Amino acid sequence: MSDPSVDKPEVLVVDDSKVIRLAAKKMLGTDYVIHLAEDGLVGWEMLQQNSAISVVFTDLSMPNLDGMELLSNIRESGNDHIVNLPVIIMTGHDDSETMKQTVFDAGATDFITKPFESIDLLSRAKAYARLSRKVVELEKKTGYDKLTGLYNANSLEEQGAKAFSFANRHKLAISAVYFEIKDFQDCFLNHGKNVAQHIIVAVGKRLQEVMREEDVAARIGVAKYALVLPMTNKQKTEAVINRVRESINKLVFDTGKEKIRVNFVAGYAAPDLSKEVEFKDMLEQADHALLRANNSATEQVVCFDDEIEIEVPAVIITELDIEQAFNHIFAGNFYQIPEQHLTRVVERLLPFMQYVENQMESESLDDSAERNVAV
User: Fold this and answer.
1) Per-residue pLDDT tens over the stretch 92-120
2) How far is CA 16 from CA 59, 64, 223, in A?
3) Rounded-to-integer distance, Cα 299 and Cα 335, Å
4) Given pLDDT bands bounded at 50, 70 and 90, which one contains residue 149?
5) Which residues contact 327 (CB under 8 A, 6 or more apart)?
6) Do 224 and 180 touch, CB atoms closer than 8 A?
7) Distance from C-alpha of 300 to C-alpha of 296, rounded to nearest angstrom
8) Which CATH number, 3.30.70.270, 1.20.1250.20, 1.10.10.10, 3.40.50.1100, labels domain 153-307?
């Protein structure tokens, strides 16, 4: 059975009042997937982790990160999806018109006054979710990331799948590489949107300069890029990664206060197409390798194959093997017994050795007793 929530638009409600959050969930829960956050900081983290959210309802007065700060983060985000999200401010009766104008100038899409009626909440959710979906559909149709000119994630799937299908059909090498600017969020917070976007564009331009005509390059996240490299095995992929990182590491960005460089990490996969593997598997492998590179203090480039522990098949020792080992012992050719058989041979001999030791001890005791009697 399919999940009934798959086609529902997703809405984020941010308010420090549990009553308001639950009321919104009750009013919208039938037609929307509802995400609830108790303050702006939690809401901001949800937005970064979930690209399916299409509308944001937020209060103004909240702890940790208030509604104005959340709105500012959204409108200054380097993520095209987040920056264009409709943000509806939930205001109280005490909020002045001056305050509303200030929030509107900061980028608020609309307002709704608390306590709100169900129809007011539903009408705004419906209107702006539809608008947000249309924006996403238009972005998918263009096929390109408007900031860098690279393919977007949708086109990566389409173009990359074609390249993979060709490679798989003719058993040619192919690989996928995921790059990411490490700690980009800190860079954005420390230096602002303009510097962050300049970095994103510059990195995209360097990728275009080093890639071949048959390669597929895309921006798939705020500071995350992907390459699909046809006819490229593991060794050649490593050479491409080194060339890209060398080119990008030369970039120096002047913020006006200081000069900064970016730290790039990469994960890649070069699957064996003689085995059953799909295009999505290759992308997931590259993404998994990138995650390890991001979490590592020492590894900046990780291959998915390096993560796979090679299982040594268990050695099966038959009775014939044991018989041959004993024949070698009788003949004095101990060195001809395979090393992996020695433990089993010793195990087989151990009961006999213990028997011999017991017999020798018994004989020794008998001899001692006879000597004592004689004396």
Assistant:
1) 766 677 887 888 888 888 888 887 888 88
2) 8, 10, 31
3) 43
4) confident
5) none
6) yes
7) 7
8) 3.30.70.270
CA atoms within 13 A on the CB side of 290: 24
Summarize pLDDT for 203-251 with one digit per residue, the tens: 888 888 888 888 999 999 888 999 999 999 999 999 999 988 888 888 8
Asked if 286 and 268 touch (Cβ cutoff 8 Å), the reply is: yes
DSSP 336: G
H helices of the chain, where? Answer: 18-28, 40-49, 67-75, 80-83, 97-105, 118-142, 153-170, 184-191, 193-210, 234-249, 279-295, 304-307, 319-331, 339-374
Q: Identify residue 264 by its one-letter amino acid code.
A: F
Sequence letter at residue 155: S
Annotated domain spans of the chain: 10-142, 153-307, 312-362
- Distance CA(177)–CA(221), nearest Å, equals 14
Place domain 10-142 in its CATH homologous superfamily: Response regulator (3.40.50.2300)
pLDDT band of residue 3 (cuts 50, 70, 90) is: very low
Chain mean pLDDT for the chain: 83
Rounded Cα distance, 350 and 357, in Å = 10
Judged by DSSP in three states, 75 sits in: helix
How far apart are alpha carbons 67 and 204 in whole angstroms?
Answer: 33
Q: Is 314 exposed, middle or buried (0-12, 13-18, 19+ CB in 10 A)?
A: exposed
Element (H, E) at 89: strand 87-91
Q: How confident is the model at residue 137 (pLDDT cuts 50, 70, 90)?
A: low
Indicate whether this model's pTM tops 0.70. Answer: no
Q: What is the largest CA-CA distance in the chain?
A: 123
And the tokens for 181?
């600017």
Q: What's 161-204 look like in SS3? A: HHHHHHHHHHCCCEEEEEEEECCHHHHHHHHCHHHHHHHHHHHH
The SS3 assignment for 269 reads strand
* Antiparallel, parallel or unpaired: β 216-219 and 224-230: antiparallel
